[in-house]
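Lest this sound abstract, we think one record worth quoting, the chain in one-letter code, the fold tokenised, each line plainly labelled:

>
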Amino acid sequence: QVQLVESGGGLVQAGGSLRLACTVSGRTISSNAWGWFRQAPGKEREFVAAMSRDSAVTNYADSVKGRFTISRDNAKNQFYLQMNGLRTEGTAWYFCAESPRGVATNCGLYYSYWGQGTRVTVPS
């Protein structure tokens, strides 16, 4: 069974950085595409970033382009979201997910397995 576990969330001041990690078990991460989504209080879940199966293609929400970076470590079977220049609107639960389609899609419907989330708080 595939399991995804996020870590690295916390409280960070505006302008600061955090690195989220998603540890995957039950699947080799080089076999699928992976993504990050977030859900702010009172809002719907939104796409943040994704990486294709071969890691050649990345996709970012316009709101995070140039500040966030998705990457992965095949040896550790983990993938990451480096978040720089965090803003107050970055306060949310962050979720990692697996897409069997293999492409860096921004559509949550194409993701099959999800983690439980890690909370990021950027106070105003």
